[in-house]
């Protein structure tokens, strides 16, 4: 069965451990700007939310890439072939959640760490989990998205 990242914002402490471990795993330095996960604080709602690529089924980033540098790997992650990437940033614009970034002229995003996501492994509160995709986890993802729509309005998405 395919696995997926499940976010539970109500558990997030805002510690940013996920940002640090991600940047260290991908860039060998503790630098949140090189992380594929960002923790956003919503002070009004008193909520911190880890934001990362949701590995969309119909990924807009892959569809818009003019050189077809983005494709799904064996772990279900949309992965960027750095040799093909020309740094045009069209995928960054196409991502509806803003979960892609640029580093040294190349685009990067969450790759699920080759099937062993470090953010989930080291999250102290369990706000980020990597588990089998099930109907209930998909329902939970949709429920969280609805909470955000209610809290911040449809125009935020």
Describe this structure in words.
- The protein is an alpha+beta fold.
- The chain contains 5 helices and 8 strands.
- The longest helix is centred in the C-terminal third of the chain and has 18 residues.
- The chain is globular.
- The relative contact order is 0.23.
- The model has no long low-confidence stretch (mean pLDDT 86).
What's the architecture, going by CATH?
Answer: 2-Layer Sandwich
Helix/strand/pairing class, anyone? Answer: alpha+beta
List the total number of helices: 5
CATH topology: Alpha-Beta Plaits
Instruction: Indicate the mean pLDDT.
Output: 86
Q: Give a quick account of the main beta sheet: strands, pairing sense, barrel closure.
A: 2 strands, antiparallel
How many distinct domains? 1
Order of helices and strands: EHEEHEEHEEHEH
Total strands: 8
Termini separation (Å)? 30 Å
Low-confidence stretches: none
What helical percentage do the residues reach? 25-40%
Shape: globular
- The CATH class name reads Alpha Beta
The percent range for strand residues is 15-25%
Oligomer: single chain
Radius of gyration: 15 Å
Q: Which strand order do you get reading across the main beta sheet?
A: 1-8
Protein name: 4Fe-4S dicluster domain-containing protein
Organism: Zhenpiania hominis
GO molecular function: 4 iron, 4 sulfur cluster binding; metal ion binding
Keywords: 4Fe-4S, Electron transport, Iron, Iron-sulfur, Metal-binding, Transport
């Amino acid at each position: 069965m395919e696995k997926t990242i499940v976010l539970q914002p109500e558990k997030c402490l805002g510690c940013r451990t996920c940002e640090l471990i991600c940047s260290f795993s991908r860039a060998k330095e503790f630098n949140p700007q090189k992380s594929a996960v960002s923790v956003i604080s919503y002070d009004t709602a008193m909520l911190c939310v880890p934001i990362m690529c949701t590995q969309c089924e119909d990924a807009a980033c892959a569809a818009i890439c003019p050189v077809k540098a983005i494709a799904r790997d064996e772990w279900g992650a949309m992965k960027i072939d750095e040799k093909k990437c020309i740094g045009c940033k069209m995928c960054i614009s196409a991502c509806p959640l803003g979960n892609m970034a640029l580093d040294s002229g190349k685009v990067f995003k969450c790759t699920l760490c080759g099937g062993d996501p470090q953010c989930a492994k080291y999250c102290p509160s369990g706000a980020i989990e990597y588990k089998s995709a099930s109907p209930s986890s998909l329902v939970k993802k949709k429920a969280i998205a609805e909470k955000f729509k209610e809290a911040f309005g449809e125009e935020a998405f």
